[in-house]
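[Solved] Which block belongs to which protein?

Original post:
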Amino acid sequence: MKSHVLGFPRIGSKRELKFALEAFWKQKITQSELEATASNLRKTNWQIQHNAGLDYVCTGDFSFYDQILDMSITLGVIPERFQQSAPLDLQEYFKLARGDAENNIPAMEMTKWFNTNYHYIVPEISTCTTPRLNAERLISQTKEAIALGFNPKPVIVGPLTYLSLSKGDGGYDVWEKLPEVLAVYCQLLKELAPYCQWIQIDEPILCADVSAQVRKEFAPTYERIVAAAGECNTMLATYFDNLDDNLDLAVSSGCSALHIDLVRGQEQLGRVLAQLPETMLLSVGIVDGRNIWKTDYVRALKVLEKLSAELGSERLWVGSSCSLLHTPVDLLNEVKLDPEIRSWLAFAVQKCHEIKFLSMALAASGDDSELRENIAAIASRRNSSRVHNPQVKERLDKITPEMLQRQSPYAQRKEEKDRPVLPEFPTTTIGSFPQTKEIRQQRLAFKKGEIGEAEYNEFIKDQIGMIVRKQEELGLDVLVHGEPERNDMVEYFGQQLAGFCFTDFGWVQSYGSRCVKPPVIFGDISRPAAMTVEWLTYAQSLTDKPLKGMLTGPVTILCWSFIRDDLPRETVCKQLALAIRDEVLDLEQAGIRIIQIDEAALSEGMPVKQREHGVYLEWAVDAFRLATTGVTDSTQIHTHMCYSKFNTIIESIAAMDADVISIESSRSKMRLLDCFRDFEYPNEIGPGVWDIHSPRIPSTEEIISLLKRACEYIPRERIWVNPDCGLKTRDWPETIASITNMVAAAKALRTQE
């Protein structure tokens, strides 16, 4: 019985790749030094998989920025606006993802990878796109693994998923390029096949809602794919949900093996077994690649025993549900974590070991002592009084429908006389301002005990004062306190809520060099004390302009944490909503009359299948309303969302009944607002006019153009002017320059009809 993972985290256990990338971008290290770091990380990752006893190591899963961008490079699918060399050098590669500030060329779009918190670079295809193979990355990494004595299994994104996630330039139908793209795929497989026994082809789109085009093209596409691989075996990898309506496609692919996700798609197993051809092996993802809880060995072994009896062990592989990209690297680094809670967890390194243990235990060669330890850990978590709080459950039971409604509808609220008086096209930011090196150093010194609480608090006050003054100088209409005291928009709140715990090195990649350290929700959630009131009231005391309080919403905290797997997500979200509701009411009582509750992850939390969206959106919207509707009409509620597919959820966004919503829209040049042509959004909206994920500074003229386009969709009296997202990752010079242009654009539009 073979064992493997679908991919391994590439950032390093101490974020080595992040620091090397950022040093390279700042010209502090050379390209050869960056490549040396990458080579060492690949070797380490392969050694981890090998030492665990897995039969194959993954190649091609390492990327300097994003695996979908890498596939675009491999296929030669590069937007025309970028200068190209053959092959594309590393500096040009990064310009695709980050933009070319020197030549004022915007970056490619970025959006969420299915319903995860990982962002991928969206391929752009036009009538002028001419795919051509660049197999250097995949072949060189595979050769590298072989030279080190490892057995490689290259991983590539399949053609149908790739095209399904691509966008056509100017409305171009990307499927017209399938013959050319497929020809390059086939060429790639032919060149890669001599170096490996297996090639993993990821088609997660088969677990989502596929288009009629995918169903039409699947059989002829995979007939060519399998033929191109020749004697090399191909594994069709699916994950993130059940195959459901697309099972017939998957089992008829002609591939040597099919991988299915039995963590998020356990219901499919019976149907898969009934339809699996005798010529096809089955790889089962039974170890969770997206969460950090230990695998329940007893439960997993029952499934594997059934499968082995039906298929035979020679037709069965054991693996991770999906790539381990979504989990931290190594639990052994967490020396400060509570020992009992640590005994409940497994990171990527430990998951590799779990996979091998399960394959060995099924062959009656597993370690009985490890099985006993696992049983004890699972029981400890299930029965722990630290996990269960009867008072939280009692409060949930007392939620009433009235708690989900504002006192008055928006049309009446906006006329409330006690609301702040603002000009047309009011300007604001999304919340955070640059987290400078000085802020990070002081936070670390406080964490290490090198400075006291009083000294640290005085430093934060100074920072808030400076940020408020700069905003006044720049002419912003609604200010924020800048969040210098916050390490992360989720972690900061989790640290003040009961039911959370935190790691020191539990980092996962969000995009590029951007890493996040999700909190762990291990128990019932409550708010012991106010979390933001002191800092926000201090900031408001420094200015006569309205200051916006910043909170993270319940759905986003849920989605950006490692959550419990012993409760429904809806229940955990309600617990969070009640905690945020308490904070909102305390802020209002303290005199903060504009409060933003960010739900950046609303669309990310949706199931991958559209037919399941309705149930999710109903409880997600209810959670937002539960958190926000206790305030009076004179308090203005804002929210913010990132990279949401608004056309599919616009009615649910309206149902949230926020007074103002700000959204990402600059990279798409306001195309995200197309949905507002057919749906009259009733409240106010701030379409992002500045892409903060790129170092490029937008001009005043560009922002005016974007806002004029927004006016085609939304009445000008309901438009706010703001960046796409928070400014935490930006430097001060570009922040000041961009806000200056943004404010100038708003002032210019106020004088125009």
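(Second protein starts here: sequence line, then its structure tokens.)
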Amino acid sequence: MARINKLTISGYRSIKDEIEITFPENSPVVLVGENNSGKSNIVRALDLVLGELWPGSREPEDHDFWNRDCNNGCIEIKAEMSDFTIRDNYGNEINLESFYWKCEPASEDGKPLFRAITSSGHRYVSNEMRDRCICVVIGADRRLNYQLSYTSKNTLLSKLMRKFHNRLVSDDTRVEYLKEKFEELINIFQGVDEFSNFQISLKEEFSTLLKTMSYGLQVDFSAYDPSNYFRSLRVFPHENNITRTFEELGTGQEQILALAFAHAYAKAFFGGIILVIEEPEAHLHPLAQEWLAKKIRQMANDGLQILLTTHSPSFVDVLGIPGLVLVRKRNNTTFIKQLTAEDLTEFCLEHGALSSRTNQQTILPFYAGSATKEILAGLFSKMVVLVEGPTEALSLPIYFSRVELDVSKEGIAIIPVMGKGNLAKWWRFFQAYEIPTYLTFDNDNEDDQDENKRKDALNSIEIDEDEIESIIQVEDWNVNDKFCVFGKDFETTLRCSFQGYRQLERQAKDQIGDSKPLVARYVAEKLQIDDSVGWTKIGELKNFLINILNPQTDVRADEDDEPPF
């Protein structure tokens, strides 16, 4: 079964320096990241080499080169394959190792080069080679109606029926039997008087019009190749035993049908398909997204190679980290981060994780056990702020908005990790993917009486041992460029830091009950901006976050800073 193992791209659109994406076995490749980071450009590069159009005839335009300038060098795309054997001109079996596409404008002819690299050297690529491993892209526009039609020989349905036909005609007895049945079918058609009369009339008219020609030509309604029976098959969806058209389907139903069709194809012909789905979450409600994500993982485990681009944490599976690719853009250039279990283990050990409990076998189940959608949403952010629980997660964004920092607009994810014990854990995770991560906590020792959880968090961000002891004894705000301590207790510190906090807190409890997160949010919304020390501290915290997000900004925050409002 031919498979793609690795895709390397350089010089293409937003991709300047070479990026390398590995395709793990039995797991989908999931491209995540912000909008406009370059995920679609990766899809287009894969489609260029393995998609329906012939790569050798795809002459790139200026905008296909990095920074929209063909003078920026050449484009190179290589899809490395495995389990792909072909025969050379002498009938010997050789391995096809990769498909390679290159366009170098500065070369003599400036034309794209498309070759198959084999164990015995470079070769021209044949249609048979490309049919062995095809890329089917279900784009955001959901072109299912096209893929399940005979519009071109390159549609998924056309390719499938050609395979059926080749199997059919491999048996001469079966072909002759089918021709006999086909003649019986034509005779049934002839029993319709209108059809028979029309056919006779058409032949007469055609003969009259062409009698001056030097060649003979006849026309009828029989097939040119009666044995190509499968060409007449069509795919129709059904609902309650009633045939529907594709136009009647919702786009969510269309993409699920596309997945089922490609999966059945792969199982029938032992793979050879890379199914690419852009934004599978589109047009699906949250529960349907979860269901589809599970089906996709099942199909990948069954052998179908799948690549997704997504903005939904429903399609992120921590156990499938080897296929998770974080796509980001810096200085107008796309770069990626893809980790294996070994990479993540090594990073965690380098940043304070206990070696006795951290290894390649335990690392992924360890993270999967406490992963939530809210936590995994951090993979789509520019920066992560880790907080202990929902009280801080609900109220802090409001405090920031009051001092003119819109965390959603800036791409800052404020993520509750459900306790001090998970701060270091998730700091290591996001930092391993090179996402700037900021720690916040308070010194309430109810669930950390031995202080080890806070020490672990501070050790992970490389705070000196002699500083740690003083930090975990702080009973007031401690705001700096790596972490923020909310005093002895978050709510207690805020009560002492904002004028009118206690009164609003009592008012909130009268209206909405005793839920700490909801009360904290209510108070944050109602507080007046004044000269309270709390607003000064929120301003300092805001400045540090902006400085981390934009390192070139020279922001100095100290005790004498004025609130930024």
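Accepted answer:
You had them paired correctly. Confirming on the second one: The longest strand covers residues 93-103.
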